[in-house]
Amino acid sequence: MAAMTLAWTKDESARDWLAYGALLAVGGVLYVLCRLFPADLPFWMPWEFSWPAYLATTLSLAWFFRGIARLPASERPAVWRNAAFVIGVAADYAVLQTHVDYLAQHMFFVHRWAHFILHHTGAFLIALGASGPAVRAGMPDFLKPLIDARPVQRMVDFMQHPAVAPFLFVGLLYFWLFPEVHTRVMLDRNLYDIMNWTMAINGIFFWCLILDQRPKPPARLSSLMRALLIIAIELPQMVLGAILSLSMTDYYPVYNICGRVFDMTALNDQHYGGLIIWLPGTMMSFAAMICVLVVMRINEERAEKERFFSPSP
Asked: Is residue 3, in this structure, part of any structural domain at all?
């Protein structure tokens, strides 16, 4: 029996390394194509290939599906949660590693849609997927101690502190849209990548905090606190969106330098971008509030059942 188990483990390890090798090979092909033939590739191919974005996407999905297969059936997320996670990861990949990224570098309103996906929709769906246990079960064992390390956990505690989380969520949105900062970022590829990564990671951390399906404890926040945080982020987004969509001043002339790909005036481009911050951002807050209320009700009903069926002392 021990020999059979050892052989099965070796076979599984070999399959894993083959899979990782295949992912690297595909990434290498994409890298070469994007370096040599960027203008000849179809819209769904990367405009500027990024190894971090590619590996984050492919490894997350690979570990997720591997973890789903490893988890007992009772511990696997519901099918709709699995679908939400996959769609969220795919949406983030689409705005980072297709020609959408090219459009976002040349049109302010497309840039706002891209960040709405990274910071809101994609991150929201990833959090809704509740995929943490599945991804952890599928990742290599040597990475798990790194995730559990005290510095990493302290960073997570800081980013998801109820006083820090809404400040970071709104603060990053404002910071990257300060005209002076935005101009510098759009002309520097390294800063541009940092901006996208901070928006995506912060969005995932924030919505995981809000959409945690568990009651407190073990969840970090009660349902009431989650609702308050949603309200806290909604008003500043509405204010920023209203300023950009109603102002008659062009705050982002950098898009004139980069060159707009659509026949649109600078103010129209800015106004549409402001509306994206204002209206879809508000609707996402409403959707989050509904999720919080539904989870609160489900947890209350579960607690009532446990009290009813628990044996009397």
From this structure: no
